[in-house]
Structures are given as C-alpha cells and as structure tokens.
Amino acid sequence: MAFRVFALFYSLICIEDVFDIRRLDDIEPGEEEFYEYQNELLNLFAESPEGKTRAEADDGMAFWAGRVIDYGYGYIGVPLHEMDANDMEELLTEIFPRKISLSTPEDADDGLPAIIAFWEYLKREYQLSNAENILRYLRAVKPADFKNWMNDSSRFGMAKSFFINGSVGRS
Q1: What is the pLDDT of residues 103-147, one digit of tens each?
Q2: What is the gyration radius of the CA atoms in the chain, in angstroms?
Q3: Which domain holds residue 146?
Q4: Is residue 22 part of a domain?
Q5: How far apart are CA 144 and CA 149, in angstroms?
Q6: Which residues contact 48 (CB under 8 A, 6 or more apart)?
Q7: Is it the case that residue 58 has pLDDT exceeding 70?
Q8: Where are the alpha helices (DSSP H) in the chain?
Q9: Is there a domain that residue 167 lies in?
C-alpha cells in the first residue's frame, strides 16, 4: 500500500515535468516564451531515439525542425498540433525557399530526412492525430523536388534574392 501511495505521489510530481505540446495556444510568435518552447522541444527531440538516429547522419538536424516550429507558427499561424499536410506543403514549397538561404545546393539534402524524423518523434511522443497525414505527405515528396524548390530562384523572397545575388558578386 505504501508503495502505491509513493508511486502515485511520484507520478503526480513528474506530470509537471511533461512537455505541453499545445502550450503555443497561449503564446504569440516572437515572445520569449515561444523561443523557450521551441528550444525545449528541440532539446527533447535531440535526446529522443529519432533525434539521436538522425544526428548520426546530420548533426544540424535541429535547424530544420526549428524552422518547422518557427515558420509554421510565425508565418502560417498554426502550432504543430494543428498543422496539416497543406501547411507542411506551404512550408516546403513556398516559405522555406523564400526564407532559408543555403550555403550550397546540397545543404537541402538533409532537410527532408530531418523534418521526417521530427514528425516521427512528434507522432510517437505526443500521439498527434495530424502526424500520420503529415508524414504521408513528407514521405511522398521526392528529395530532388525539395532540393529544387530550395534552390529555385523564382521562389526566393526579395531579401534572400538580394543576399544571394550580392554574395555571388552579381548586381
């Protein structure tokens, strides 16, 4: 009996330490709390089996997961638990190419696998009902298509175009 009481008490204490994936519902993009949420979730992802496996091939995998959180919420206005495949498509085909500058075209090669690993983590850890549909979409995207989207100058935003043109010496 004493063990059951202790186990119940211990589980109640630990509940406070559980990450609330829906916490963004009460936070505005750009607030300090948003960045705390993002950093905490990225750290949890990095320590997860999915994150550790992905980090073996790509130690910068948190970059792409961070952009899903940041741009999904900041530009589309949806937190992870409300995101759908159409939102993910908008991120991959419009927002990422417009906002993310790559050092080389090959830098896009790690993006899709990192984002898939992140959504596999979200599905397993938080049982998000939208995760399977998003994963289905992500797995249907051809890596060559994602690389082309990310390097297609017609998709670049104005600031990115100026940066890219200026950084390669074009006027």
Answers
A1: 899 999 999 999 999 999 999 999 999 999 999 999 999 999 999
A2: 18
A3: 32-161
A4: no
A5: 9
A6: 121, 124, 125
A7: yes
A8: 2-15, 32-47, 49-57, 61-71, 85-90, 96-99, 111-126, 131-140, 143-151, 158-167
A9: no
Is 69 a member of any domain? yes
**Does 63 reside within a domain?**
yes
Higher pLDDT, residue 17 or 105: 105
Other Cβ atoms less than 10 A from the Cβ of 108: the count is 21
Which residue's entry shows tokens 């017609």? 154
Residue 13 — pLDDT band, cuts 50, 70, 90? Answer: very low
Angle (nearest 5°) at CA 46 between 29 and 130:
60
Confidence (pLDDT) at 171: 35
What local confidence, expressed as pLDDT, does residue 17 receive? 62
Please count the structural domains in the chain: 1
User: Amino acid identity, residue 150?
Assistant: M
